[in-house]
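Reopening this one. Same input as before:
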Amino acid sequence: MALTDIEVKRAKATDKPVKLTDSGGLFLLVQPNGAKYWRLAYRFAGKQKTLALGVYPDVSLADARARREEARKLLANGADPGVVKQSQKAAKSEQATNGFEAIAREWFVRHSPNWADNHSSKIIARLEKDIFPWIGAKPVAEIAAPELLAVVRRIESRGALETAHRALACCGQVFRYAVATGRAQRDPSGDLRGALPPVKRDKHFAAITDPQKVGELMRDIDGYQGSFIVKCAFKLSPLLFVRPGELRKMEWADVNLDAAEWTYFITKTETHHIVPLALQAVETLREIHPLTGHGKYVFPGERDHDRPMSDNAIRSALRRMGWANEEMTPHGFRAMASTILDNMGYKQEWLERQLAHEEANKVKAAYKREMWRMYLPERTAMMQSWADYLDSLKTGAQVVPLRANSFTR
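Same output, byte for byte:
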């Protein structure tokens, strides 16, 4: 006779396993410890087999019978229910270890210690909001370019084109990590170059000028965990506020640490230029000198030390720390210094000379060979005051830009 709910509930344990038969091969196995297991006896390919259907009371009598019917349908179609169950279990295990979300989280755990906190938060939030709900459960090796494109186009459709580009780049890093760890054959994000519209950039270079945000940026630079060479270039960027190309091509032959000056020729303006070095800048240069001082460039390339560092190194470092391109750029350090120093009350001609802007006045331009040392004492004092001001912001002090008469002229 078929079992009833009451019989199943009241089934008592003995000193030996007890088998209570239902119908169609289904039975309840009661162990001496009181545990109750649903089992299905069946034959496949001439062999007697047993299939586990769950534990009572988590799986009720009705549930066990439904599972029995599912197994019988498989048998009727020539499939072994036990083998099918093992395959499903393996698939779930693969999903847990080889699914996109699992690999992305593994990649994040390995790399996030090298990122600024705000950058880490943005990365994981972007993945959890825009990526995992769509492809998180799918084995990473099975995700093709069209499926990935559909995911990032959802982001684009809400008007967040730059976020879509960043999400695609982030996915690419996850796929490449999966390839490196043997869980995928290739990175499908590479097939999507040009699939998203390019981000329209403003002609001006983004820069931050709010003192609180500047202080945050200074702290991020101090905490940068990437290449030491890039970090030193990063630290000098706000202190010197020269053009990014001039900084990365900085040569030791042009630097006089004892005189605290950097003198070089600017191709853009066809003139020499002197950058007074604040104490903080000299300290940074002395720190990097043992590493690169034997070569030509202060900031040599990572692979080729006979060439300067990549023009994208500082930009990439900003991105890694969570500073968006529309918020701050390597060129933005010039605008940041110019704006704040102007607000402080420094004379415009001092700023123009320190920024080494091209002289529009033809008469003045004729004397540009003599102009490169103009206002040097004033500029030297200004550069030291600027460096000290940045230090104050970095410590989190509530610093208000001081007026011109507050500085030594």
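So the earlier flakiness isn't reproducible anymore. For the record, Residues 360-367, 400-409 have pLDDT under 50 and may be disordered.
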